[in-house]
Amino acid sequence: MKKRILLCDDERHILRAVEFIFQRAGYEVQCATNGQEALEMIAAGQPDILVTDCQMPCLDGIGLVRALRSNDETLCLPVLLLTAKGFELTDQLASEQLGILEVISKPFSPQALLGKVNMVFADETVVRVSEAKSPVALPDIKNKRDDLGLPTEIFGDVIVVHTPEEMSVGQADQLVHFLTDLERTKVVVDMDGTETIDSQGLAALLDAHDSLRSKEGDMRICTSNSVNRKILEVTRIDHQLEVFGSIIDAVKDFA
Q1: Which of 1, 14, 21 minimizes the C-alpha distance to 117?
Q2: Is residue 31 within 8 Å of 56, Cβ to Cβ?
Q3: CATH 3.30.750.24 correct for 144-252
Q4: pLDDT tens for residues 180-234?
Q5: In CATH, what is the architecture of 4-132?
Q6: Which long-range contacts (CB under 8 A, 24 or more apart) does 205-213 make?
């Protein structure tokens, strides 16, 4: 049976060139132009390897890999990541935290890329892990939920906590206890899902931050929500806590 490769890149000329080379080599090839499209194709039938660009519309390569690593069915799908020249991605984030086999800088030779894919398939350990779909030798980044119902993700020694829709007086104490009782003391608080936040909720963030710092840990805030960012700005919370626009940027800041 032919090995199936999923190519994901928003530059169609790159897709066509790589697709041609891989098909000539005897592989079955599927093509997607953004991460969301790739996720839908993987849900319909998992490929043997994913070769994806990093910077794409709708859902970028990092977001795509994060989504794959949070699903048991795709936790061990082999991934090669293509990046534009000048885009830096640390080895720790790529390999240890996202389980990416190799980061390849553009421009690249399609023939050289074919050689790297051939090497992955020749590595019996990688192939066995992929077929077994078991979390062998890959980072612990499964989605989990705490007793309070807060979703979390693990990236190496950093934990990402997704806050509830409402952060007010009723949830403030629980939030502080949860954030400070975690095994990991490097915490990213993702506020994108929070629609209501009052002074008690803001105070809870500061209290949790102080507690983590006392344990030689630290906390970062992440939100792309313009309203939340304005609240953090007006209350000058952003002067006391570092605020990032994406989870990946916040996680990378701990490196």
Answers
A1: 21
A2: no
A3: yes
A4: 888 788 999 988 878 788 888 888 889 989 999 998 999 999 888 888 888 888 8
A5: 3-Layer(aba) Sandwich (3.40)
A6: 205/175, 205/237, 205/241, 206/237, 206/240, 206/241, 207/176, 208/175, 208/176, 208/179, 208/180, 209/240, 209/241, 211/176, 211/179, 211/180, 212/179, 212/180, 212/185, 212/187
